[in-house]
Amino acid sequence: MEVYTNENDQVDAVKRFFVDNGVALIVGLVIGVGAIFGWNYWQSHKTNVLQESAQKFENVSAQLHSGSAQGIEAAQKFAAETNDVYSAMIGLELAQVSVDKGELANAEKALTDALTKAKTEDMQDLINLRLARVQLAQGNADAALSSIANIKAKSWQAAAQDIRGDALLHKGDNAGAKAAYTQGLESEGSQSLRSLLTLKLNNVSVL
């Protein structure tokens, strides 16, 4: 490191630094300012895109629940072309419509697609929970157990263990089902869910 002997030497060194590096500093400053403006623009752009997506979601959701074939097609198109939380939300609604019509394979596809668009752990947990129910309704207990294993949040564990118990019972694992229902009762859950788990636990205990 250079040692400065007096103030004039320091001033001369500063001058030399700017002569040698002035262009680089100016370019860096321009890039820095540009990056700030670019970041602000990008954030504004993302906000506008999300607001537009929200409006489209409202319109498509209304069409979907009209029960028309065009509404289903519009929802499927929106889900395929959108890559944000609203795509995941419309996927959940598409799955519900399919379940109501008894089209479980379509419901599973809608939920599987929605899972790839979910941006938060809470949304992913909800989708995995519903996916497990659909998979179990199709008799695929192993797939349901796999989906349940992906649920992380404590707030979903009571519902998750309820489905896990049903899946294990479907596979003939009474002891595993009993353990799952017991774990569900030990987790956070609504009073109605706790009553259901208690009923299931009582039933499996006498098997």
TrEMBL record:
Q: Does the keyword Electron transport apply?
A: no
What superkingdom heads the lineage?
Bacteria
Q: How does the record classify its membrane topology?
A: Single-pass type II membrane protein
Query: Can you give the residue ranges of the Ancillary SecYEG translocon subunit/Cell division coordinator CpoB TPR domain?
Result: 15-205
Gene3D superfamilies listed in its UniProt record: Tetratricopeptide repeat domain (1.25.40.10)
Which keywords does UniProt give here?
Answer: Cell membrane, Chaperone, Membrane, Transmembrane, Transmembrane helix
Gene Ontology terms: cellular component: plasma membrane
Pfam families in the cross-refs? TPR_21 (PF09976)
Q: Give the subcellular location.
A: Cell membrane
Membrane-spanning parts = 22-42
> Main localisation, per the record?
membrane
Q: Which Gene Ontology terms cover its molecular function?
A: protein-containing complex binding
What InterPro entries does the entry give? SecYEG/CpoB_TPR (IPR018704), TPR-like_helical_dom_sf (IPR011990), YfgM (IPR026039)
- Give the similarity note: Belongs to the YfgM family.
Q: Any idea what this protein is called? A: Ancillary SecYEG translocon subunit
